[in-house]
Write a structure and sequence with these properties.
There is one protein chain. With 439 residues, the protein is of the alpha/beta class. The protein folds into two domains: 145 residues, Alpha-Beta Complex (Aspartate Aminotransferase, domain 1), CATH 3.90.1150; 270 residues, Aspartate Aminotransferase, domain 2. It contains twelve helices and 17 strands. Strand 16 and strand 17 form a beta hairpin. Helix 11 packs across helix 12. The two termini are 36 Å apart. The mean pLDDT is 93.
Length: 439
Amino acid sequence: MGILSKSDHRARAADQSRAVAMDHPVIRPWSPIVESPGRVMADRALGERLWDADGTEYIDASSLNAACGYGRLEIVAAASDQMARMQGVDLSMHDHDVAARLARRLSAHLPAELSRILFTNSGSEGIEAACFVAASYHAHLGRPRTRVVTFARGYHGSTTLARSLSQLGPTAHWFNDPIRVTPVTIPGTDRDARDPATSPLLLAAFAEAITQDPADAPMAVLVEPLINVGGGVVLPPGFLRGLRKLCDEHGVLLIIDEVFTGIGRTGRMFGFQHEEITPDIVVSSKGLSGGYAPIAAVAIQDYVYQTFVDDPFFGGVRYGHTTSGHPVACAASIAVLDVIEKDGLVDNARRMGTRLLDGLASSIDRSVVRDVRGLGMLVILEMDGDDSAAALAEGARKQRLLVRQQGPIVMVVPPLTADADVIDDIVSRMRSALDGVDG
Protein backbone atom coordinates (compact mmCIF):
# COMPACT_ATOMS: atom_id res chain seq x y z
CA MET A 1 0.00 0.00 0.00
CA GLY A 2 1.35 3.43 -0.95
CA ILE A 3 1.72 6.43 1.35
CA LEU A 4 -1.58 8.23 1.87
CA SER A 5 -1.80 11.93 1.05
CA LYS A 6 -3.32 14.48 3.42
CA SER A 7 -6.53 14.47 1.40
CA ASP A 8 -6.63 10.65 1.60
CA HIS A 9 -6.22 10.82 5.39
CA ARG A 10 -9.04 13.38 5.62
CA ALA A 11 -11.31 11.24 3.44
CA ARG A 12 -10.58 8.12 5.51
CA ALA A 13 -11.21 10.03 8.76
CA ALA A 14 -14.48 11.36 7.37
CA ASP A 15 -15.55 7.84 6.36
CA GLN A 16 -14.74 6.51 9.82
CA SER A 17 -16.55 9.45 11.45
CA ARG A 18 -19.60 8.89 9.27
CA ALA A 19 -19.61 5.18 10.09
CA VAL A 20 -19.52 5.93 13.83
CA ALA A 21 -22.34 8.46 13.52
CA MET A 22 -24.50 6.25 11.32
CA ASP A 23 -24.12 3.42 13.83
CA HIS A 24 -25.35 5.60 16.71
CA PRO A 25 -28.98 4.72 17.59
CA VAL A 26 -29.98 8.29 18.52
CA ILE A 27 -30.77 10.75 15.75
CA ARG A 28 -29.10 13.90 17.03
CA PRO A 29 -31.25 17.00 16.43
CA TRP A 30 -29.76 19.81 14.35
CA SER A 31 -26.53 17.83 13.84
CA PRO A 32 -24.78 16.64 10.68
CA ILE A 33 -24.47 12.91 10.14
CA VAL A 34 -20.67 13.13 10.16
CA GLU A 35 -19.39 12.82 13.71
CA SER A 36 -18.30 16.16 15.17
CA PRO A 37 -14.96 16.20 17.04
CA GLY A 38 -16.42 18.64 19.58
CA ARG A 39 -19.16 16.39 20.92
CA VAL A 40 -18.97 15.39 24.58
CA MET A 41 -20.56 12.24 25.99
CA ALA A 42 -22.13 14.01 28.95
CA ASP A 43 -22.45 11.84 32.05
CA ARG A 44 -23.23 14.06 35.05
CA ALA A 45 -23.33 17.72 36.03
CA LEU A 46 -23.41 19.98 39.07
CA GLY A 47 -23.57 23.74 39.36
CA GLU A 48 -21.86 25.22 36.30
CA ARG A 49 -19.80 22.10 35.60
CA LEU A 50 -20.32 18.98 33.52
CA TRP A 51 -18.38 15.71 33.41
CA ASP A 52 -18.06 13.41 30.43
CA ALA A 53 -18.12 9.61 30.50
CA ASP A 54 -14.33 9.56 30.99
CA GLY A 55 -14.55 11.81 34.04
CA THR A 56 -13.20 14.95 32.36
CA GLU A 57 -14.62 18.09 33.99
CA TYR A 58 -15.81 21.07 31.93
CA ILE A 59 -17.30 24.46 32.65
CA ASP A 60 -20.54 24.43 30.67
CA ALA A 61 -21.08 27.78 28.96
CA SER A 62 -23.08 26.21 26.15
CA SER A 63 -26.49 25.37 27.62
CA LEU A 64 -29.39 27.68 26.77
CA ASN A 65 -31.58 25.96 29.36
CA ALA A 66 -29.58 25.64 32.57
CA ALA A 67 -30.53 28.99 34.09
CA CYS A 68 -30.13 27.76 37.67
CA GLY A 69 -27.22 25.47 36.96
CA TYR A 70 -27.20 21.72 37.34
CA GLY A 71 -28.24 19.57 40.27
CA ARG A 72 -30.33 22.04 42.30
CA LEU A 73 -31.82 19.63 44.81
CA GLU A 74 -34.81 21.85 45.61
CA ILE A 75 -35.85 21.75 41.95
CA VAL A 76 -35.30 18.00 41.75
CA ALA A 77 -37.34 17.52 44.94
CA ALA A 78 -40.22 19.66 43.65
CA ALA A 79 -40.42 17.63 40.44
CA SER A 80 -40.07 14.34 42.30
CA ASP A 81 -42.73 15.22 44.86
CA GLN A 82 -45.16 16.22 42.13
CA MET A 83 -44.44 13.04 40.18
CA ALA A 84 -45.28 10.96 43.27
CA ARG A 85 -48.41 13.00 44.00
CA MET A 86 -49.81 13.12 40.43
CA GLN A 87 -47.61 12.79 37.39
CA GLY A 88 -50.02 14.24 34.87
CA VAL A 89 -53.55 15.02 33.75
CA ASP A 90 -54.88 16.46 30.51
CA LEU A 91 -55.65 20.17 31.04
CA SER A 92 -58.27 19.99 28.30
CA MET A 93 -60.20 17.62 30.60
CA HIS A 94 -59.26 18.58 34.16
CA ASP A 95 -57.66 21.46 36.05
CA HIS A 96 -54.74 21.17 38.45
CA ASP A 97 -53.54 23.78 40.90
CA VAL A 98 -49.83 23.54 40.08
CA ALA A 99 -50.45 25.01 36.60
CA ALA A 100 -52.53 27.82 38.10
CA ARG A 101 -49.81 28.57 40.65
CA LEU A 102 -47.13 28.71 37.95
CA ALA A 103 -49.30 31.00 35.81
CA ARG A 104 -49.74 33.39 38.74
CA ARG A 105 -46.01 33.31 39.59
CA LEU A 106 -45.01 33.98 36.00
CA SER A 107 -47.60 36.74 35.60
CA ALA A 108 -46.11 38.50 38.62
CA HIS A 109 -42.94 39.08 36.58
CA LEU A 110 -44.84 40.42 33.56
CA PRO A 111 -46.77 43.64 32.93
CA ALA A 112 -50.22 43.38 34.51
CA GLU A 113 -51.95 43.29 31.13
CA LEU A 114 -50.28 39.95 30.27
CA SER A 115 -52.50 38.06 32.69
CA ARG A 116 -53.47 34.97 30.65
CA ILE A 117 -51.04 32.06 30.26
CA LEU A 118 -51.24 29.15 27.81
CA PHE A 119 -48.74 26.36 28.49
CA THR A 120 -47.10 24.28 25.76
CA ASN A 121 -44.21 21.82 25.74
CA SER A 122 -41.60 23.73 23.76
CA GLY A 123 -40.73 27.12 22.37
CA SER A 124 -41.61 26.00 18.85
CA GLU A 125 -45.10 25.05 19.99
CA GLY A 126 -45.35 28.30 21.90
CA ILE A 127 -44.57 30.35 18.79
CA GLU A 128 -47.07 28.36 16.76
CA ALA A 129 -49.69 28.94 19.45
CA ALA A 130 -48.90 32.67 19.52
CA CYS A 131 -49.42 32.91 15.76
CA PHE A 132 -52.69 30.98 16.01
CA VAL A 133 -53.88 33.30 18.78
CA ALA A 134 -52.96 36.39 16.73
CA ALA A 135 -54.79 35.15 13.62
CA SER A 136 -57.80 34.16 15.71
CA TYR A 137 -57.93 37.57 17.39
CA HIS A 138 -58.23 39.41 14.09
CA ALA A 139 -60.79 36.89 12.81
CA HIS A 140 -62.89 37.37 15.94
CA LEU A 141 -62.97 41.10 15.18
CA GLY A 142 -64.20 40.39 11.67
CA ARG A 143 -60.98 41.45 9.91
CA PRO A 144 -59.09 38.23 9.07
CA ARG A 145 -55.32 38.66 8.78
CA THR A 146 -52.69 35.99 8.29
CA ARG A 147 -49.42 37.79 7.49
CA VAL A 148 -46.47 38.13 9.86
CA VAL A 149 -43.60 40.62 9.70
CA THR A 150 -40.36 39.39 11.24
CA PHE A 151 -36.57 39.43 10.90
CA ALA A 152 -35.27 37.42 7.95
CA ARG A 153 -32.59 35.95 10.22
CA GLY A 154 -34.84 35.36 13.18
CA TYR A 155 -35.18 31.83 14.51
CA HIS A 156 -38.47 30.80 16.10
CA GLY A 157 -38.46 27.01 16.22
CA SER A 158 -38.53 23.81 14.22
CA THR A 159 -42.19 23.05 13.55
CA THR A 160 -43.22 23.64 9.94
CA LEU A 161 -44.94 26.90 10.83
CA ALA A 162 -42.01 28.12 12.95
CA ARG A 163 -39.53 27.21 10.19
CA SER A 164 -41.60 29.23 7.73
CA LEU A 165 -41.04 32.33 9.85
CA SER A 166 -37.29 32.24 9.18
CA GLN A 167 -35.10 32.58 6.11
CA LEU A 168 -32.11 30.91 7.75
CA GLY A 169 -30.80 28.08 5.57
CA PRO A 170 -31.13 25.24 8.11
CA THR A 171 -34.82 26.04 8.67
CA ALA A 172 -35.76 25.41 5.02
CA HIS A 173 -38.38 22.70 4.46
CA TRP A 174 -40.16 20.89 1.65
CA PHE A 175 -43.77 21.66 2.57
CA ASN A 176 -46.08 24.44 1.48
CA ASP A 177 -45.61 27.40 3.80
CA PRO A 178 -48.51 27.47 6.27
CA ILE A 179 -48.13 31.20 6.94
CA ARG A 180 -47.29 34.29 4.90
CA VAL A 181 -44.20 36.12 6.06
CA THR A 182 -42.66 39.46 5.16
CA PRO A 183 -38.98 39.31 6.16
CA VAL A 184 -36.97 42.33 7.26
CA THR A 185 -33.21 42.50 6.73
CA ILE A 186 -30.89 44.17 9.22
CA PRO A 187 -29.14 47.13 7.58
CA GLY A 188 -25.35 47.22 7.76
CA THR A 189 -23.19 44.78 9.71
CA ASP A 190 -24.13 42.76 12.79
CA ARG A 191 -21.39 44.61 14.65
CA ASP A 192 -23.04 47.97 13.90
CA ALA A 193 -26.60 46.79 14.60
CA ARG A 194 -26.45 47.81 18.28
CA ASP A 195 -25.55 51.40 17.38
CA PRO A 196 -28.45 53.76 18.28
CA ALA A 197 -28.20 55.17 14.75
CA THR A 198 -29.43 51.82 13.41
CA SER A 199 -32.76 52.06 15.23
CA PRO A 200 -34.48 54.51 12.83
CA LEU A 201 -33.23 52.48 9.86
CA LEU A 202 -34.66 49.29 11.29
CA LEU A 203 -37.95 50.95 12.18
CA ALA A 204 -38.25 52.35 8.68
CA ALA A 205 -37.75 48.84 7.27
CA PHE A 206 -40.46 47.43 9.54
CA ALA A 207 -42.80 50.30 8.69
CA GLU A 208 -42.36 49.56 5.00
CA ALA A 209 -43.00 45.85 5.57
CA ILE A 210 -46.15 46.55 7.60
CA THR A 211 -47.63 49.00 5.10
CA GLN A 212 -46.44 47.46 1.81
CA ASP A 213 -50.01 46.47 0.90
CA PRO A 214 -52.85 48.45 2.55
CA ALA A 215 -55.27 45.67 1.60
CA ASP A 216 -53.13 43.04 3.35
CA ALA A 217 -52.32 44.32 6.82
CA PRO A 218 -50.23 41.93 8.93
CA MET A 219 -51.74 40.19 11.94
CA ALA A 220 -48.51 40.51 13.95
CA VAL A 221 -44.91 41.59 14.13
CA LEU A 222 -42.78 38.84 15.70
CA VAL A 223 -39.23 39.50 16.93
CA GLU A 224 -36.62 38.30 19.39
CA PRO A 225 -35.20 40.97 21.77
CA LEU A 226 -31.79 39.67 20.71
CA ILE A 227 -31.34 37.67 17.52
CA ASN A 228 -29.94 34.37 18.71
CA VAL A 229 -29.32 31.70 16.05
CA GLY A 230 -29.29 34.27 13.24
CA GLY A 231 -26.00 35.84 14.28
CA GLY A 232 -26.09 36.78 17.96
CA VAL A 233 -27.21 40.29 17.02
CA VAL A 234 -27.72 42.86 19.77
CA LEU A 235 -30.47 45.24 18.66
CA PRO A 236 -30.16 49.03 19.08
CA PRO A 237 -31.67 50.88 22.03
CA GLY A 238 -35.06 52.38 21.24
CA PHE A 239 -35.91 49.79 18.59
CA LEU A 240 -38.47 47.80 20.58
CA ARG A 241 -40.02 50.99 21.91
CA GLY A 242 -40.41 52.30 18.36
CA LEU A 243 -41.74 48.94 17.17
CA ARG A 244 -44.40 48.96 19.88
CA LYS A 245 -45.54 52.38 18.70
CA LEU A 246 -45.52 51.27 15.08
CA CYS A 247 -47.69 48.25 15.85
CA ASP A 248 -50.16 50.41 17.79
CA GLU A 249 -50.46 52.84 14.88
CA HIS A 250 -51.41 50.05 12.46
CA GLY A 251 -53.48 47.78 14.71
CA VAL A 252 -50.88 45.01 14.58
CA LEU A 253 -50.14 42.67 17.49
CA LEU A 254 -46.58 42.64 18.82
CA ILE A 255 -45.30 39.15 19.67
CA ILE A 256 -41.99 38.92 21.50
CA ASP A 257 -40.08 35.64 21.30
CA GLU A 258 -38.40 35.27 24.70
CA VAL A 259 -37.78 31.53 24.32
CA PHE A 260 -34.05 32.09 24.76
CA THR A 261 -33.85 35.55 26.33
CA GLY A 262 -36.59 35.17 28.94
CA ILE A 263 -36.21 34.30 32.64
CA GLY A 264 -33.19 36.44 33.40
CA ARG A 265 -30.73 35.72 30.58
CA THR A 266 -30.37 39.38 29.49
CA GLY A 267 -30.08 40.84 33.00
CA ARG A 268 -33.81 41.56 33.14
CA MET A 269 -36.49 38.96 33.72
CA PHE A 270 -37.52 39.43 30.09
CA GLY A 271 -35.55 41.06 27.30
CA PHE A 272 -38.35 43.44 26.31
CA GLN A 273 -38.23 44.95 29.82
CA HIS A 274 -35.00 46.76 28.90
CA GLU A 275 -37.26 49.11 26.92
CA GLU A 276 -40.22 49.07 29.34
CA ILE A 277 -42.79 48.09 26.74
CA THR A 278 -45.79 45.76 26.99
CA PRO A 279 -46.07 43.26 24.13
CA ASP A 280 -49.42 41.74 23.21
CA ILE A 281 -48.05 38.20 23.39
CA VAL A 282 -44.84 36.86 24.96
CA VAL A 283 -43.45 33.34 24.51
CA SER A 284 -40.92 31.98 27.03
CA SER A 285 -39.47 28.51 27.43
CA LYS A 286 -35.84 27.46 27.92
CA GLY A 287 -35.01 29.09 31.24
CA LEU A 288 -38.54 28.67 32.62
CA SER A 289 -37.85 25.17 33.92
CA GLY A 290 -34.08 25.57 33.93
CA GLY A 291 -33.73 22.50 31.73
CA TYR A 292 -35.27 20.22 34.37
CA ALA A 293 -38.39 19.51 32.29
CA PRO A 294 -39.85 20.58 28.91
CA ILE A 295 -42.28 23.50 29.12
CA ALA A 296 -43.14 26.80 27.46
CA ALA A 297 -45.54 29.60 28.34
CA VAL A 298 -47.49 31.91 26.05
CA ALA A 299 -48.54 35.05 27.94
CA ILE A 300 -51.45 36.88 26.31
CA GLN A 301 -52.94 40.27 27.03
CA ASP A 302 -56.43 39.93 28.49
CA TYR A 303 -58.09 42.04 25.77
CA VAL A 304 -56.87 39.51 23.18
CA TYR A 305 -58.00 36.54 25.25
CA GLN A 306 -61.50 37.94 25.81
CA THR A 307 -62.27 37.80 22.08
CA PHE A 308 -62.09 33.99 22.16
CA VAL A 309 -65.56 33.91 23.67
CA ASP A 310 -66.68 34.80 20.14
CA ASP A 311 -64.71 32.03 18.41
CA PRO A 312 -67.19 30.74 15.81
CA PHE A 313 -66.03 27.12 16.05
CA PHE A 314 -65.45 26.59 19.73
CA GLY A 315 -65.80 29.58 22.04
CA GLY A 316 -62.30 29.07 23.44
CA VAL A 317 -58.64 28.68 22.50
CA ARG A 318 -58.35 25.79 20.04
CA TYR A 319 -54.74 24.93 20.76
CA GLY A 320 -52.94 22.53 23.10
CA HIS A 321 -51.34 19.15 23.60
CA THR A 322 -52.01 16.23 25.90
CA THR A 323 -49.03 17.19 28.06
CA SER A 324 -49.50 20.98 27.91
CA GLY A 325 -48.99 22.38 31.40
CA HIS A 326 -47.63 19.05 32.62
CA PRO A 327 -47.76 19.05 36.45
CA VAL A 328 -44.17 17.86 36.89
CA ALA A 329 -42.84 20.52 34.51
CA CYS A 330 -44.97 23.17 36.24
CA ALA A 331 -43.68 22.11 39.67
CA ALA A 332 -40.08 22.27 38.45
CA SER A 333 -40.72 25.72 36.96
CA ILE A 334 -42.17 27.06 40.21
CA ALA A 335 -39.04 25.82 42.00
CA VAL A 336 -36.88 27.50 39.33
CA LEU A 337 -38.65 30.81 39.94
CA ASP A 338 -38.10 30.30 43.68
CA VAL A 339 -34.35 29.91 43.09
CA ILE A 340 -34.15 32.86 40.70
CA GLU A 341 -35.94 35.14 43.14
CA LYS A 342 -34.20 33.88 46.31
CA ASP A 343 -30.70 33.93 44.84
CA GLY A 344 -31.13 37.18 42.90
CA LEU A 345 -30.10 35.51 39.65
CA VAL A 346 -31.49 38.20 37.37
CA ASP A 347 -29.27 40.81 38.97
CA ASN A 348 -26.40 38.32 39.02
CA ALA A 349 -26.82 37.82 35.28
CA ARG A 350 -26.54 41.57 34.78
CA ARG A 351 -23.45 42.00 36.99
CA MET A 352 -21.58 38.83 36.02
CA GLY A 353 -22.56 39.28 32.38
CA THR A 354 -20.88 42.69 32.42
CA ARG A 355 -17.80 41.12 33.99
CA LEU A 356 -17.75 38.44 31.29
CA LEU A 357 -18.17 40.97 28.48
CA ASP A 358 -15.49 43.24 29.90
CA GLY A 359 -13.15 40.27 30.33
CA LEU A 360 -13.51 39.19 26.70
CA ALA A 361 -13.73 42.68 25.15
CA SER A 362 -9.95 42.84 24.69
CA SER A 363 -10.27 39.90 22.28
CA ILE A 364 -11.29 42.39 19.60
CA ASP A 365 -7.56 43.05 19.20
CA ARG A 366 -7.14 39.56 17.73
CA SER A 367 -6.95 39.39 13.96
CA VAL A 368 -9.59 36.64 13.79
CA VAL A 369 -12.14 38.44 15.99
CA ARG A 370 -14.42 40.96 14.31
CA ASP A 371 -16.57 41.89 17.29
CA VAL A 372 -17.32 41.10 20.92
CA ARG A 373 -20.82 41.98 22.10
CA GLY A 374 -23.35 40.81 24.63
CA LEU A 375 -26.36 41.40 26.81
CA GLY A 376 -26.64 40.03 30.33
CA MET A 377 -25.20 36.56 30.80
CA LEU A 378 -24.51 36.13 27.11
CA VAL A 379 -21.39 37.13 25.20
CA ILE A 380 -20.90 36.71 21.45
CA LEU A 381 -17.54 36.57 19.70
CA GLU A 382 -17.99 37.22 16.00
CA MET A 383 -15.09 35.58 14.19
CA ASP A 384 -13.78 36.19 10.67
CA GLY A 385 -15.42 33.02 9.38
CA ASP A 386 -16.96 29.65 10.19
CA ASP A 387 -13.58 27.90 10.28
CA SER A 388 -12.06 30.19 12.90
CA ALA A 389 -15.26 29.99 14.96
CA ALA A 390 -15.14 26.19 14.85
CA ALA A 391 -11.44 26.30 15.78
CA LEU A 392 -12.21 28.54 18.74
CA ALA A 393 -15.01 26.29 19.98
CA GLU A 394 -12.72 23.26 19.67
CA GLY A 395 -9.89 25.15 21.37
CA ALA A 396 -12.23 26.03 24.23
CA ARG A 397 -13.22 22.37 24.59
CA LYS A 398 -9.53 21.45 24.88
CA GLN A 399 -9.37 24.04 27.68
CA ARG A 400 -12.30 22.14 29.27
CA LEU A 401 -14.79 24.89 28.46
CA LEU A 402 -17.95 24.18 26.46
CA VAL A 403 -19.28 27.01 24.27
CA ARG A 404 -21.68 27.23 21.30
CA GLN A 405 -20.67 27.78 17.70
CA GLN A 406 -23.28 29.03 15.23
CA GLY A 407 -21.70 29.81 11.88
CA PRO A 408 -19.08 32.55 12.34
CA ILE A 409 -20.06 33.32 15.93
CA VAL A 410 -19.15 31.71 19.23
CA MET A 411 -21.59 32.19 22.09
CA VAL A 412 -20.56 32.01 25.73
CA VAL A 413 -23.70 31.23 27.73
CA PRO A 414 -23.00 30.26 31.37
CA PRO A 415 -25.75 29.48 33.88
CA LEU A 416 -27.12 32.55 35.65
CA THR A 417 -25.59 31.18 38.87
CA ALA A 418 -22.00 31.76 37.73
CA ASP A 419 -20.02 33.82 40.27
CA ALA A 420 -16.93 35.98 39.76
CA ASP A 421 -14.52 33.02 40.09
CA VAL A 422 -16.36 31.03 37.43
CA ILE A 423 -16.56 34.04 35.10
CA ASP A 424 -12.85 34.78 35.47
CA ASP A 425 -12.07 31.13 34.81
CA ILE A 426 -14.17 31.24 31.63
CA VAL A 427 -12.35 34.37 30.46
CA SER A 428 -8.95 32.77 31.12
CA ARG A 429 -9.84 29.61 29.22
CA MET A 430 -11.29 31.56 26.30
CA ARG A 431 -8.13 33.64 26.03
CA SER A 432 -6.02 30.47 25.96
CA ALA A 433 -8.29 29.06 23.24
CA LEU A 434 -7.94 32.28 21.25
CA ASP A 435 -4.15 32.02 21.46
CA GLY A 436 -4.40 28.75 19.58
CA VAL A 437 -6.58 30.24 16.86
CA ASP A 438 -4.79 33.57 16.45
CA GLY A 439 -1.29 32.23 16.93
